[in-house]
Each structure stands twice: as structure tokens, then as C-alpha cells.
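S1.2 Input.
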Amino acid sequence: MVCLMGEMDYTTHILKQLLGQLIDKSLIRQHSKMLLRRTDSVGEKLLTNWLAVCLYGYIKEHVGTPLYRLSRALKMQLEKGPIDVVTGEARYSLSEEKLLRHVIQEEKLSCFLDTGDGNGMPITFLDCDSIGQTKEKALDAMYKGRAVCERPSLVDVELEYTKSKSSNSPIILRDIDSSNESEKGWTRINTLKHYKIENGAHFQLRTRTESTKCDYVGTIISVYDKKREQNLENHLWHLSKPDDAESNSSSSKEKMASEVYLHRLLYSKNVLQNFVNDLFEKILDVNNRQKENYPLAIRYFFQVLEEQASKHDITDADTIHTWKNNGLALRFWVNLIKNPEFVFNIYKSSTMDSCLLVIAQTFMDSFSVSNTKLNKDSPTSKLLYAKEVRTYKQSVANYYEDIKKLPRVSEEEMTEEMNSLSKNLQKVDMLDTEEALYQLLRYANKYSTQVNNNNNIMTTLIHAYCTHSNLPLGCYATGKM
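S1.3 Output.
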């Protein structure tokens, strides 16, 4: 796709041909409704990237804001309560898989963070926060509104603690040091409570100067790296041990009743619901923009599918509807909802990933043509959003009807749109076209037998790479690339 960004009209032509071939194959195999559900073929991969390039401007102007707000609201909701840095389980998770079921009696600590200007920035921690989590929250406060790539990593900073601003005896806090509590092969990660931190404490982040082994465990809301555990005599735990380790342990913590943690999921869902609604409404709203400004790429893609259905005498509305769902909702929007870091320079933890997966699945359920009957054995995530899905389904139906009412996109309009996009993409100097050409040539060489059946393909690739790289055309044959 990188190689073809300057020729988007040509790319669209290739995509149209590949889609036609995919539909032909799916009909031969009698799996028409499975079309575009996988990523095995070049056509399916190209479609995903083509949509991403074509809809970038639409996302930036229209969908980006509610998506960012949702990701920020989710992060803030998770950090309201305890988060186990080893397992990624959180009290206020939206996902049952990452729900912290152990009862943790935490306390809020109102502290101050030295920002270097002589004044302490007020900041709140939980006494059950690990030192790595504390550092992460401190970095979030200091670099608020900045991209993750513009701030130091946890490896690069140390957390210095003093009881008061005038104290002359700072202490470096670490997740793992000589003071860790250990029992029966299990070592507990240090927390603020372990260091007896109280309200009014002062903290400062200092650049790490020593070249020692990393002394923090993971990052906030992250799954523990098993490779680190292999270098330790004991297993590590933070807020809860695995069930098998707790069965005979006197330190086993009380677990919540199932009714309680289901209420926790519902509480988190209600807190985030407005943000979820805003995002879904923006994605499914056609009429709030002038008709001619609604993305031509989506309209054209739907037209191609409809033309292919007409060509093959497919009159089943559910089949065409499923193609559109798989191509746009599943391959593009669901992927974007699950992975906001594809658009924004943010960090996504394993817990956030699990929660976003619940939201993305709800979005996909809203596009389903079938009505699944739910019962007490249904997945919690589906029960959680059952009421909302019924409303979203109506919005999806309206969405498709609104797009049908839009004027058809002519080939001339699409060509003009793609040529304009190509000119804008040629101004982007952040993509390594030479490397992309080289990787494409290697891919083609891997399937040389099939490719050599059409010599024009390999000749075109070699010529494009050598011309772009200022290499003689014979370099590929001699292995000097």
C-alpha cells in the first residue's frame, strides 16, 4: 500500500478487481457470507489499508474526537480503583476477564509532585499502587496532553520520595528491592503502603543514572512479563495470587460474591455509556454532514459490492448486508475501536484492550442480521449491552438507508477523489517507499513460480525498485540488492 499511495486511482482499480475475484471464489465454495471475514488474501489486506488511507481525513475531522474521549474516559475509570500490575485485573473493568474479584481495602493519598518550578503539583495515588504504577501516574500528570513518545519511559526515571518539602532525606522507591515481602516462594511487589507513604508526601521523578537491571514491574495496567519472572527465585504478585497459590495460604484474600462483581461491571458500563453512544452515533451518522462530503470511499465500496451481487444474480438482502458489514464494520471500525493507538500516540494496557474489545464486540453485534437469544449462560459482555444493542440495530438500519439515498458515485468522481488524495499523500515524507518496494519484491520472489507465470509482474516490481533506489536493473539477478 505504501508503494501505491501516489497512485490511489490505480490502487482502487486493483482493489475492485481483487474483490471481484474474492466474490467469485466465495460463491464457488458456497461460503458467500464468509466474504471479507478473514485476512488471508492480498485483496482482503489491501481493502483494510485502502479504507484506512481513504478515511483518514474523515476520522481526523469527525470520528477521532469521540474515539479519543472514550479511550481517555476508560483509562480514568480504570484508575479510579486498584489495578493488579501482574494480572491486569481492575476493580472497575468493563471486561469480566479482567475484573479484580478480590476485596482490596485501599486508601487515597493526596500528595505533591515536584515539577521543577519550585511548586508542588497536587496528585492523588492509591496506597495499593505499585511503584511502577505511581511513576506512570506521575508521568501522566507531568506530561498531560503530550504524546507518549514525547515523554520518558518508566525505565528512564526513578521515583524519589520525601516526607515533606523541607526534608533532607529522600528515598528512592522501587518495585523490587531488599525490602520486598516474601513467603513460600512468592514475593510481593512493593506498594506505597509498603513504604508507609502518608498524605502530604512529596515525590520527584529523576532521570535514572545507574545502569542496573530494571527495578520496576511492567507498566500501569499491564500484564506481567513472564521472562522477568524467570530471573527471580520467587514468583511475583501484587494484589492477588493465583487461586492455586492461595488455596493453602493464610494470606488468601476474601473474594467478592458473583452478584457484587456483576454490579461492578454494570457500574463501569454506565459511567462510560455516554462516551460509547457518542462514538457510535458519529460513526453511524450520515445526515450531519453535507451529502457530497460523506466519504466517497464508503459509498463507492458499497456500490462495488452491489454491482457484484447484481452480476451474480444475488437477491438475498442479508448476503449483501453481510458483505458490507464484514468489509466496513468488521474490518475497519471494529479494528479502530479496539486499537485507538493506531490513530493516537497513546499507551494501551492489556486491561484497556480487554475493555475496548467488549465495546468493539457490542458495535459488531449491532450490525448482525440475526437476533441472538440471550439467557443466563450467555457471555456477560452480551448481557451487559443487550438493551443498547437493540437501539443500535435501528441506528444501523437507518445508516444503510441514509447511504442508499445518497447520489451514486461515478467513476469520474472517484478518479478525481483518488487523484486528489494521491497528491496529498505525496507530500507525506514519513514513509519509507524504498523499503516497502523491497519487501514487496521479496514477497513476490517467495511466490516466484506463480508470479513468473506473468512476467510483467516481476519485471514491473524489479524496475520500480531499481529505479527508486538508483540501482542498475541487473542488481536483482546478481543478488546485490
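S1.4 Remarks. The beta strands are 108-114, 120-126, 157-162, 171-173, 182-183, 186-188, 202-207, 235-237.
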